[in-house]
Design a protein that fits this description.
By secondary structure, the chain is mainly alpha-helical. It is built from four helices and four strands. It has a four-stranded mixed β-sheet with strand order 2-1-4-3. The radius of gyration is 38 Å and the shape is elongated. The structure holds zinc ion.
Length: 235
């Protein structure tokens, strides 16, 4: 077999092995990931509640401002009443006074309503915080449970990585670049086996001449349809 072809097959096998570890790792991390998603959702809820509380506080302070303005108005009315000259004037001021008092009462009711809502939201926040704390504690336990599995996986990754590096170092850089170019669009099937005279990358049947070239494997042969490097997989 052509030396370069042999290297390309080996290289692609390392890449495939590495890619196969990804779902394995995801599977190991799954219980942790699920907890992290829950925490993230709760944290979002917490932020939303904080935003709502902020809005309620703003509404409350607007009403407080309104009350202080109305109180000032009442002071002025009182001053005018002390200097009043006609009954008509006095009646008008009394009406104004009543209106301001009613407005103050309404604003106070609003404030009480907002305070109640703020209190309820603060309680919700405390509950969520407790939930998050529990989940975080669970995360620590799960993390220590899966750590040994992750360590084994990491060792496997390192071994594949080292072997691949060693191979890449020894390879002709043109061949390596050629592989990387195909890999850009073909991913880990840049080097594909031929089965039943068909390229296993694009699943198209290859012609007789190409098939014979692939079997001989004296040269690097690419698929006439897709351009992947072809080879016959040894049993
Ligand atoms: Zn093909």
């Amino acid at each position: 077999m052509n030396k370069y072809l042999k290297e390309l097959i080996e290289l692609s096998k390392y890449d495939k092995k590495m890619a196969d570890l990804v779902p394995l790792e995801e599977n190991i991390k799954k219980p942790l990931t699920q907890l992290q998603v829950k925490i993230k959702n709760l944290t979002n809820k917490l932020e939303k509640l904080e935003e709502e509380i902020k809005n309620l506080l703003l509404k409350k302070s607007k009403n407080e401002l309104l009350i202080s303005e109305l109180k000032e108005k009442l002071n002025k009315i009182a001053e005018k009443i002390s200097k009043v000259k006609t009954i008509r004037e006095s009646k008008a001021l009394a009406l104004e006074e009543d209106l301001a008092k009613e407005q103050i009462e309404a604003a106070n009711e609003e404030i009480a309503k907002f305070e109640k809502a703020i209190e309820a939201k603060k309680e919700q926040k405390d509950e969520i915080k407790k939930e998050i704390e529990q989940l975080e504690a669970e995360c620590v336990i799960v993390q220590s449970d899966i750590q040994s599995k992750l360590d084994v996986l990491e060792e496997q990754k390192q071994a594949i990585f080292k072997n691949k590096e060693k191979l890449v170092q020894s390879m002709d850089s043109k061949i390596y670049k050629f592989y990387e170019k195909i890999k850009k669009w073909a991913g880990n099937s840049a080097v594909s086996p031929v089965k039943k005279q068909a390229c296993m990358g694009c699943f198209m049947k290859i012609n007789e001449k190409t098939y014979i070239d692939v079997i001989k494997s004296d040269e690097i042969t690419t698929c006439p349809h897709c351009g992947r490097v072809l080879y016959i997989e040894e049993e």
